[in-house]
Amino acid sequence: MKGSHVLELTRRLTEAFGVSGYEDEIRSVIRAEIAGLVDEVRVDTLGNLVALRRGAGAAGQPGKRVMLAAHMDQIGLMVTHIDEKGYLRFAPVGGVFGLACWGSQVRFADGTVGTVGLDGGISARDKLPTLNSMYIDVGATERAGVTVQVGDVAAFWHAFAGQGSAWFAPSMDDRIGCVVLVQLLRELAGREIAHDVYAVFTTQEEIGTRGATTSAYAIDPYVAIALDVTLTGDGPHTKPALEVYLGRGVALKIMDKGMISHIGLNQLLIAAAEAEGIPYQREVLQVGSTDARAMQMARSGIPTTALSVPSRHVHTPSQIVDRRDVAAAIALLVAFLDRPITV
After folding, report:
1. Which terminus of the chain is more exposed, N or C, with fewer CB under 10 A?
2. Could you say which of 23, 205, 206, 283 is catalytic?
3. Class of 76-156 per CATH?
4. What is the pTM of this model?
């Protein structure tokens, strides 16, 4: 993996707009990135970007349909009311928490920026903030100066930054999974593989894994793997305890709150990682879930797991991942696809 190329890819993807249900911009960016790397590409009814890299098959190793899914959408804020002074009240789109919002900069699809304010301002700093005590300030002094409308959505915003092996951006969940999937397609270019790889960039994961639900039904894969972020246990006094650390490799999901991974599929991934010396960690997550839950329950059931990039400060305006974990995720997928898949 060429680090500078992946860094620039990460910059492009993390800085693109794409709140749940409004993924047009990020979908266009990704579609341009994968042009020429796949045999087919389409956009389905829910806006999922579905790309197929056909396999060649092999003697004694019939190709399987493998679905790899990374969600394009990010959490955000939707305008619910604009008062006479131009302040915007909002509702959360996905898992947005008041504690993470105050003072954050947000950006709308049209480029309008704003700051999240708190009723009472600094005088209320000692109270636990709630979303209904917050507003977006776009710098207007009256409603007539506001260009956005009720129903418009904003995403947390600051530019991507790299510092050593650490990468920072508000939208690492799950643009870094999209980076892994795009770079995987790059690394498969010109390489013969047996399996048909469906690279699916899904929509509306943050509000209920909706894109994965419909795309998995349509593809009906033999196995499926979600590519997402996970929490880490390496912060001060982290609770609950979690044995996942930044910089120690890709995390293989054993269980989260929504699903238990397929044991046979996990065994194949572990075998590939250990054969190739790829660093990996075992993830047992006690909160949240991913597209893997939806794919696992599609049709009559699909053997499913997830590969996670460890991320500090998930669902906040500044998330951190480590480029070494990104590289491990890509390497493990290449090694996995090079092998027979029977579960």
Report:
1. C
2. 205
3. mainly beta
4. 0.94
